[in-house]
């Protein structure tokens, strides 16, 4: 479905800046924002509900290339601790 909207320039600029930070096209970013709306009306109340939500939106298991999460976290921490400062 296609919808044409006339957004106030301030809102368009704000959404464009947010989309740009995420390196997403504006239309895809707006779709993500709208898709997130049900979560805002009924947020998870327990850890189990939060994990179920993360699974439903694909956050959990979104990195199949990471087979050992603890080792991966150790490597990231080591890289952060030993990076050169500018």
Molecular structure report:
This protein has 86 residues and is mostly helical. It folds into two domains: 7-43; 44-86, no CATH class. It has five helices and no strands. The chain has helices spanning 9-21, 26-35, 37-41, 47-56, 69-81. Helix 1 crosses helix 2 (26-35). The longest helix has 13 residues, at 9-21. It is extended. The mean pLDDT is 89.
Topology:
Layout: H1 9-21, H2 26-35, H3 37-41, H4 47-56, H5 69-81
Question: What are its keywords?
Answer:
86 residues; single chain; 0% strand; mainly alpha; 59% helix; 5 helices; 2 domains
Concise overview:
The protein is mainly alpha-helical.
Instruction: Please write the string of helix (H) and strand (E) elements.
Output: HHHHH
**Overall average residue pLDDT:** 89
Extract low-pLDDT stretches: none
Q: Treating each run of at least 4 consecutive H or I residues as one helix, how many helices?
A: 5
Helix content: 55-70%
Percent in strands: under 5%
Rg, Cα atoms, Å: 18 Å
Q: Characterize the quaternary organization of these chains.
A: single chain
Overall SS class? mainly alpha
Number of strands: 0
Bulk shape: extended
Total separate domains = 2
Largest sheet: none
Terminal residue distance: 48 Å
């Amino acid at each position: 479905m296609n919808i044409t909207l006339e957004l106030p320039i301030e809102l368009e600029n704000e959404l464009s800046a947010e989309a740009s930070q995420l390196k997403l096209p504006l239309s895809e970013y707006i779709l993500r924002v709208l898709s997130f709306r049900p979560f805002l009306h009924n947020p998870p109340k327990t850890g189990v509900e939060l994990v179920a939500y993360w699974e439903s939106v694909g956050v959990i298991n979104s990195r199949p290339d990471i087979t050992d999460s603890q080792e991966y976290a150790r490597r990231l921490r080591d890289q952060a601790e030993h990076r050169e400062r500018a």
